[in-house]
Amino acid sequence: MDDPGQLSEYGKILIIILVGIFLVAMTIMAGRMLSVNKPTPQKLSTYECGEDAVGSSWVQFNPRFYVIALIFLLFDVELIFIFPWATVFGQAEYIAADGRWGWFTLIEMALFVGILIIGLIFVWVKGDLEWVKPIHQRPKVNVSIPSTAYDGLNQATYPLRAYTVQLDDKATAEKANEEMPVAPKIAFKPRFKKPGATS
């Protein structure tokens, strides 16, 4: 490059970057100036697929999403490599030049696809393709009580008493028991404290 007034290749790239930044900035500025701005609580709320945004946004994603995404990328890349291989190595000029060319490329792609199929079989046997993994496990509790004590409790029969309403007035109680049972008096009333209240 003898002429200092001529742009180098890096100068052309710099001009393209600057023009791109300018066009994006002008588009954003035009959108801000021309659009109608009437904010409401509904417009300013977070959009969650048409549902109300309730709760914290810090939620844990199931790790199976990542496993499925990685498996998808694996076979997506496989297709990206198979298409050019089929178009380039399937040309008649290459096969006519040497008859072994077709067998070489076929074995090469069979090895490539075979390695991917081995990976798929490994993931399949491991159970990562199943979304819900059933775990059949009986609960165990380490206690010093023998199991025969539990068997005795479970097999025993216990008498049931008839449900009767106990009210202060005997005549009202008899009438209520004959017609329809009324809820008994509550012996305990829970008290709820407001947050920040001192007792």
Task: Give the topology, please.
Elements: H1 9-34, H2 41-44, H3 64-89, H4 92-97, H5 100-126, H6 147-155, H7 170-179
Which range does the strand content fall in? under 5%
List the helices and strands in order.
HHHHHHH
Supply the helix-strand structural class.
mainly alpha
Q: How many strands in all?
A: 0
Q: Fraction of residues in helices? A: 40-55%
Distance between the termini: 86 Å
Compute the CA-based radius of gyration. 38 Å
Notable characteristics:
199 residues; mainly alpha
Report on the architecture of this protein:
The protein is mainly alpha-helical and 199 residues long. Among the domains are: 9-44; 64-126. The protein contains 7 helices and no strands. 0% of the residues are buried.
Quick synopsis:
The protein has 199 residues and is mainly α. It has helices at 9-34, 41-44, 64-89, 92-97, 100-126, 147-155, 170-179.
